[in-house]
Amino acid sequence: MEDYLVKSIYKDGLIRAFAVKATNVIAEAQERHDTWSSSTVALGRTMLGTMLLGANQKGEDKITVRINGNGSAGEILVDADAHGNVKGYISNPFVDLKRNDNGEVIVNQAVGNEGFLTVIKDMGLREPYAGQTPLISGEIAEDFTYYLTESEQIPSAVGLSVQLDAEDRVRVAGGFMVQVMPGATEETIQFIEERLQQLRAISELLTKDGKPEDLLDAIFGEGEYKALEQLPVQFHCDCSKEKFGRGIISLGVAEIHAIIEEDHGAEVVCQFCENKYQFSEEDLVALEKEATRE
Ligand SMILES: [Zn+2]
Q1: What domain range includes position 99?
Q2: Which listed residue, 5, 22, 48, 222, has the most CB atoms within 10 A of its CB?
Q3: Separation of CA 272 and ligand 1 centre (Å)
Q4: Does residue 271 sit in the same domain as residue 225?
Q5: CA-CA distance, 260 to 117, in Å (whole number)?
Q6: Residue 291 phi, psi (nearest 5)
Q7: How far, in Å, is the centroid of ligand 1 from the Cα of 198?
Q8: How far is the CA of 100 from the centre of ligand 1 (A)?
């Protein structure tokens, strides 16, 4: 089944909820980065949260989320846009922490909570918007909730889930974001809070043929909300040989010359998607020429 996100409103639009199922997207991230259990779940949850924030953007706006909690997994960096494209990177993909008794994956120690969740929104303006809140748990969903409520001042609830199978492959991945708009009554807020407290596990609601709509049904009640839009989501990296070529040019003539002399070529690996780009000696000589002109 294809991965997608659903945008919905409840009660005249005073409550907004987005739900996403992205099992394939997170499985692709795991495959590309060869992540182990804790790294898979930490990166996956951050990608889900960033997709939900990205879906709230407009047009060509882009959003970047950086989580740096001083844990063993290092930094997590995820980019998403309003069209359902997402790419992500974790500096240490090889963290595998489990509770002995039941194999439950430990995330907060891998992420750490001595640091920040930073959100950068590139809206095509000269200065991108940046907001930041301290990490409060390192479990990611709580950290997104705290960011939205504190930094963006929108009372929110975020749930993110990446469940692995016995071989630590991604079995199911999805999540939701519920936001209260100004004007919502105390009664409505209380109703939603109670529904969220009683919510079954996301992985249970989405397992097998579960859809994002099943999450929304569980949150608001079947038929109680209005679905506005379905947005396909996919792992997508916008890297290219040309882009990395410009990066090589920016190294400067002397540096490029040294690479030609020593290695007679170069291989560049994209940190977001692990695609490899080969630059032959000829390519490098051409780039050196361009660098001379700059
Ligand atoms: Zn790439």
Answers
A1: 4-235
A2: 48
A3: 5
A4: no
A5: 40
A6: -65, -35
A7: 40
A8: 36
Rounded CA-CA distance 35/93 in Å is 4
Work out whether strand 276-280 and strand 265-269 pair parallel, antiparallel, or are unpaired.
antiparallel
Same domain, 262 and 191: no
Same structural domain, 75 and 192:
yes
Query: CATH number of the domain that 227 lies in?
Result: 3.55.30.10
Residues 225 and 246 reside in one and the same domain = no
- Quote the ligand 1 centre to 230 CA distance (angstroms): 26
Provide the number of structural domains found in the chain.
2
Model pLDDT for residues 165-214, shown as the tens digit of each residue: 999 999 999 999 999 999 999 999 999 999 999 999 999 999 878 999 99
**How far is the centre of ligand 1, averaged over its atoms, from the C-alpha of 241 (Å)?**
10
pLDDT tens digits, one per residue of 112-126: 999 999 999 988 888
Residues 146, 209, single domain; the answer is yes
Q: Which residues surround ligand 1, an ion (CB under 5 A)?
A: 237, 239, 270, 272-273, 275
Ligand 1 centre distance from Cα of residue 269 (Å): 8
Cα 218–220–224 angle (5° rounding)? 120
Scan for tokens 């500096």, then name that residue: 91
> 237 alpha carbon to ligand 1 midpoint, in Å?
5
